[in-house]
Write a structure and sequence with these properties.
The protein has 197 residues and is mainly beta. The chain contains one helix and nine strands; from the N terminus they run H-E-E-E-E-E-E-E-E-E. A hairpin with an 8-residue loop joins strand 3 and strand 4.
Length: 197
């Protein structure tokens, strides 16, 4: 009888411990204890996904008193490299409606580009398009990709965004409009196709 009572008491104790550990492991102390959870689009206020096309001109000015693109780093061999391999440039380039620098500014391209190819002119582009116009004011698109600058049309991925462009994905096509060999200044036409909510 004592043995049965001991086994029964041990079994009840084990069941209680398992029950308490099960409850404690599934009930967070507060909302900060939750690492991840599934959400519905409705919960986040997301409606139907849209596809937008943006068209603008990117003005990369490296010359003059107020350049919008400034070299901030370079490798020792950059001066002898025909591709400027290792050079890193910080930019705050205006984005305009037309190819003229005097046309309406709709945003800025802010970030860096770096010469990442030894044998050809290939840039690593890491930048945000920061929009300043209309319903896009305050929204951004993030670009991260390769820009083979002497190709007629280059394509770079849109990897995200903010504001109207939250959850953005798509691509940007760049086409050189003008390039001044003497100054290094360039105007690049962009067509950006982006899915967003």
């Amino acid at each position: 009888m004592a043995k049965t009572t001991l086994n029964l008491a041990s079994t009840i104790l084990i069941i209680n411990i398992l029950f308490l550990s099960l409850i404690c492991s599934h009930v967070p102390v507060n909302s900060q204890d939750i690492f991840a959870r599934k959400l519905s689009k409705r919960e986040m206020g997301l409606k139907r996904e849209k596809l937008s096309h943006l068209h603008f001109f990117f003005h990369d000015v490296v010359s003059g008193r107020n350049p919008t693109a400034v070299r901030v780093a370079e490798a020792a061999m950059t001066n002898t490299s025909s591709t400027f391999f290792g050079a890193v440039v910080m930019i705050d380039d205006p984005l305009t409606v037309g190819p003229n620098i005097s046309s309406k500014i709709v945003g800025r391209a802010q970030g860096i580009y770096a010469s990442a190819a030894q044998d050809e002119s290939g840039l690593l582009m890491v930048l945000n398009y920061v929009f300043l116009e209309g319903k896009y004011n305050g929204s951004t698109l993030s670009i991260l990709g390769r820009n083979k600058v002497f190709s007629q049309v280059r394509e770079m991925p849109v990897v995200g965004g903010s504001g109207i462009f939250r959850y953005a994905r798509g691509y940007a096509q760049a086409k050189t409009h003008t390039f001044n060999l003497k100054t290094g200044d360039a105007v690049v036409e962009y067509n950006v196709y982006v899915f967003h909510y």
